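Take just one protein record:
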Amino acid sequence: MVIDYIKNTSITPIKTMDNLMADDSQISGIVDAHHHIWRINDLDWLKGPTQPRIFGDYSNIKKDYLISDFLVDLQNSGVEKSVYIQVNWPVKQEIMEAEWVQEVANEFGWPNAIIGYVDFSSEEARETINRLNSFPLLRGVRQQLHWHQNPLYCFQPTPDLMLEKNFQKNFALIQDFGWTFELQVFSSQMKNASVFAKTFPKVKMMLQHCGMPEDTSDAGMEKWRVGMQRLAEHDNIFCKFSGLGTFIHKNDPNFISDITSECLDMFGDKRCIFGSNYPIEKIWSDYDSIVKAFIDSTSNLSIESQMNIMKYNAEKFYKLG
């Protein structure tokens, strides 16, 4: 079995990008700050009938995706550390999710940090936070807040959940643990997200997928820019270069370059971080091509700036040893 192969051969990712970049490339030690692993039987949304979803036809990822599979995918990419992002286990199983990923990390040495899940609207939020804090690799949490007029893109029933009193009361608890928060919103919610970030200046927030630019019309992109500029004004908001195939259902280097260039103008190279969004992006791309597209999109920058985006910022943000 593949998992036995991984155990016995101890795959070590290549430490340079010579296979992806020019021979003089100095990009190494890359951190993938956004990926998932799963056992299909743990995920009702994945093992059930295929349904219309934000990322299109996902039939080719409706199977186990274990850490062994992830390590095979990344072995030639230059990635040396990774951050696991919660993947919507059934309600009230967030502790089981974190426990499983921690056990995987204990056995394989990957992933190197865990982003768990808390429902901040729940009466059990405090208990969940306290229990999650027992896992050594827990660095923060994600509760997806994105709302959209298009039901296919909508995850929450209301666009302003982050401003509700009970949500904020529970959210304030993570300040005591120094946790980060993965902020996932559309441009129409960015004004609210700006207020939210200002309310919790001590919580570092990682904006998911470059603010999810789903409307690429001139008007849609301008709305996205206005929202992104508003978020960039907050020093506690960082921008994750990830998931840019979500709405176009392909790995498009030109699109990635256009979006990351604008994000860099707003956030700067010290507040931008790379993530593969694998295996969601496996629907339309191999892993190496994802890494290459994001490195190429920053090829006009200095090596130091590229290393900030591909390694150093993530190590600092997620407290990677």
About this structure: The first strand starts at residue 30 and ends at 35.
